[in-house]
Amino acid sequence: MRLDRGVAAQRVAVADAVCARVGLDGTELPARLPATADVFAAGGTSLAHVAVIVRLLGSPPATRLAPEVWAGAEIQLADAAAGYTPREVQQWGTALLEALDADGPEPDDTPPPLVNELRLTRFAAKPGGRLVGRYDDAALFEAVAAVLDAKAAPLTADEGRSRVERKAEALAEVCGWVLEHAELPAVGGRRPVLTVQIRLADLETRARAGMLEFGGQLSPAALRHLACDCGVVPVVFDGAGQPLDVGRLTRSIPDGLRRAVTARDRGCAHPGCDRPPSWCEIHHVLPWEHGGPTALGNLVMLCKAHHRQIHTTDWAVRLRGGLPEFIPPPWIDAEQKPRTRPRTWNPTRAREGPTRIAEFA
After folding, report:
1. Which domain of life is it from (predicted)?
2. Is the pTM of this model over 0.70?
């Protein structure tokens, strides 16, 4: 009949439940679910309804019921199927069986061990990969869920990411923060870092790709995003690919300049975003590969989500009067009116001239 395996299995299960049976001696026997069979034969329910009833009556709570109680439950489920959707029958029937099976399963002094697992699988034909996790330990799951719930909230009123996209990026953002700020065990004698391998000549000529240790090849936009604010370790190779010299780690944004940007922007500069400086990166307004200088007048502080937004969408940022302002794409604002984050401003102090800001470690 050229049916998918799941559809074929469903039809076989339904037929086994609602069709009359024949005994070994040729005697015709009633259907295994007689009340359901009557409703189904009268056209009062569908294959999906019967499949739900079959699953419910084969569940552990149903198998613990006495035969007469089980038969009564089947009659009630058949009646419910005539007026409910399959999903509603599933919910209603689950509650019914739990009520009938008031004692529940026998106590088990040796419960099965908790299973906590997370699988990371790299895509074979494209960059990136898949994470599939399971947490039987409620405390561990609650810790993960609480962090993602806090970090996956919409950042601004113009948030264009779906909730699942925000959660995925929140997990990566938290991991990135840990890589930058937390003490982690050494891997091969060094602190875990996000490493991109690319030739310097390629990087200086608008490289179109780079290679990650785990995630595979980077897109040009992702590479430019990382290159905005990164640490660079020069490694010199000979013609045979053997490393000849490894230099020191240097930041693309010097520490003093980073402090100046922090003092000006005080966190993500995007209007409506409240990410603090420790969760932010530094973005070159005019890309450095296009000749943009690494100077205060060309740098702006952005959280990871808005940094990625500037690199991958039609949002734009510029500095006007030394302060960042953001230009939305036409589909958000047809007039593309620049937006800035509100700032506390004291006209009296402004007339007195610049204020020196001291920072104490």
Report:
1. Bacteria
2. no
